Amino acid sequence: MSKKISIALVDDDDAVLDSLRLYFTATGYDVAAFAEADSLLKALSEGLEPDCIVSDIRMPALSGLELQRELSARKIAIPLILITGHGDVEMAVGAIKAGAHDFIEKPFDERRLLTSIEDAVSRRSRSIGEETELAAIAGKVAELSERQRQVMNLAVQGLSNKQIANQLGISPRTVESYRAWVMERMGAKNLAELVRLAMRLGR
């Protein structure tokens, strides 16, 4: 990936923490290592913004699952990958259902973890891009007049100009004018594009 990825590692096992830190630093990643989840949360509150968090599940203070719940409560949408022992698989599956990106069983291959991290960061980047695009589309719709929005909503339902005119009590020529404005404001070259834009907004 072109952008240098930053990772936050959390593990109470010093040997594991040092090993992963050395591996990812050598791979070219920025790494912040923490022996406990509370320390990570404190760093996040102070401005740390890693691209991905890798955490052990079983830790003496705040566990990986408790860390996940805390991240969710604070609305911190950083991908979380959990490192788990064989006895923790059921918990890890539950964590995936609750929003964690992945879980990796010990002992694990660092390359497997590396692949998962890159996938998590890539998905997050796509998600952020999608949210930005949706916000831009919603902004264009908000700039339409109420009548223009009515015409757009009926047009994307497949109604003809005449049908829209009858439903709104206006002339087909006026509908045609509104549709032209809508297409221009929404940046749609044709009705198919307008339908796809509306579908993305759930209309």
Q: What is CATH's topology name of the largest domain?
A: Rossmann fold
End-to-end Cα distance: 35 Å
Describe the main β-sheet briefly. Answer: 5 strands, parallel
Based on Cα principal axes, name the global outline.
elongated
- At the fourth level of CATH, the homologous superfamily of the largest domain is Response regulator
CATH class of the largest domain: Alpha Beta
Roughly how much helix do the residues carry, as a percent range? 55-70%
Number of helices: 9
Supply Rg.
Answer: 24 Å
Strand proportion: 5-15%
- What is the number of strand segments? 5
**N-to-C series of helices and strands:** EHEHEHEHEHHHHH
Unreliable stretches (pLDDT < 50, length at least 5) are none
The pLDDT mean sits at 89
Descriptive notes:
The chain folds into two domains: 128 residues, Rossmann fold (3-Layer(aba) Sandwich), CATH 3.40.50.2300; 57 residues, Winged helix-like DNA-binding domain superfamily/Winged helix DNA-binding domain (Arc Repressor Mutant, subunit A), CATH 1.10.10. It is built from nine helices and five strands; from the N terminus they run βαβαβαβαβααααα. With 203 residues, the protein is α/β, with parallel strands linked by helices.
